[in-house]
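Budget justification aside, the reviewers requested a transparent look at the raw inputs and outputs of the sequence design task funded under Objective 1. We therefore reproduce one unedited record. The lines immediately below are the structure tokens for a 301-residue chain.
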């Protein structure tokens, strides 16, 4: 049903101007989108481009081409980059989904001040990559998703995107360190650090996430303990540490008064801290264990 509604919506948009793609707001067909980018005429109506399905040579979008699309709000790009002086372009961009950026992509002058959603995947660049400059002035950024960033050993500094509400670090196999600036994200509600198999510790600054409700570290195989500051997460509702090496929960977890769901599946945890009995919640505290651990614990209101 979802795919049918999506296709219906795209057909409606396509009918806006069947004879000239530059007259449409959203261009989901990759070939049409690329033709529009390369055309010399100004495209004031174009708001969304999909260049993900392009399979030939990497796409290089020039500053002149960006200048002809002043109202672009959404861009999906694969194996592509920007060239030229682009500092004063993409001013209206709200959503950037960037897959497989080139290794030689510097992007020192890419400042997206109005960006709300940034999705980066299959990125082999390191933490020294110029593309991370996007985050330095992303005051309006709400969602940041980093997936399969193989070159990343340390997360970027989050100090420039303090309004983040959702952060996902997914399948970054070489990630070893989370920058302490993560503790500055006071509005963060959802945090996924999942399937990052080299990550062993988290900074104590995690305790600064006062509005965090969902926290998952599923599949972080080398993670052996949680920071004691996790007890400061007063808004935390759900905690998932499944498929990790975490051996125990910190005593401070009893201070997370709203914690109602804990997933301990496939962990070596043998007992719970006494402080977990201090949790006063409006529903059961669920503990999922698939190993031969018969300790069942429930807290009811």
């Amino acid at each position: 049903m979802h795919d049918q509604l999506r296709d219906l919506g795209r057909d409606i948009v396509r009918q806006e101007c069947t004879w000239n793609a530059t007259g449409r707001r959203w261009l989901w067909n990759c070939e049409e989108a690329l033709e529009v980018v390369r055309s010399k005429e100004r495209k004031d109506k174009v708001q969304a481009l999909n260049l993900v399905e392009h399979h030939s040579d990497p796409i290089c979008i020039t500053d002149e081409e960006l200048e002809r699309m002043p109202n672009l709000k959404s861009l999906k790009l694969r194996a592509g980059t920007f060239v030229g002086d682009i500092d004063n372009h993409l001013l209206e961009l709200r959503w950037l989904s960037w897959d497989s950026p080139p290794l030689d992509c510097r992007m020192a002058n890419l400042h997206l001040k109005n960006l709300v959603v940034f999705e980066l995947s299959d990125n082999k660049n390191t933490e020294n990559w110029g593309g991370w400059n996007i985050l330095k002035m992303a005051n309006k950024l709400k969602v940041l998703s980093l997936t399969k960033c193989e070159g990343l050993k340390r997360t970027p500094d989050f100090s420039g995107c303090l309004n983040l509400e959702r952060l996902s670090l997914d399948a970054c196999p070489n990630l070893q360190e989370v920058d302490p600036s993560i503790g500055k994200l006071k509005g963060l509600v959802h945090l996924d650090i999942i399937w990052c198999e080299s990550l062993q510790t988290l900074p104590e600054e995690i305790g600064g996430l006062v509005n965090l409700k969902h926290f998952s570290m599923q599949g972080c195989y080398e993670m052996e303990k949680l920071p004691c500051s996790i007890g400061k997460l007063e808004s935390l509702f759900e905690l998932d540490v499944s498929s990790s090496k975490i051996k125990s929960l910190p005593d401070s977890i009893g201070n997370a008064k709203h914690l109602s769901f804990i997933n301990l599946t496939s962990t070596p945890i043998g007992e719970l801290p006494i402080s977990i009995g201090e949790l006063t919640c409006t529903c059961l505290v669920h503990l999922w264990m698939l190993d031969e651990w018969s300790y069942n614990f429930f807290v009811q209101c």
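DSSP finds three helices and 14 strands in the chain. The CA atoms of residues 28 and 301 lie 51 Å apart. Computational costs for records of this kind are itemized in the attached budget.
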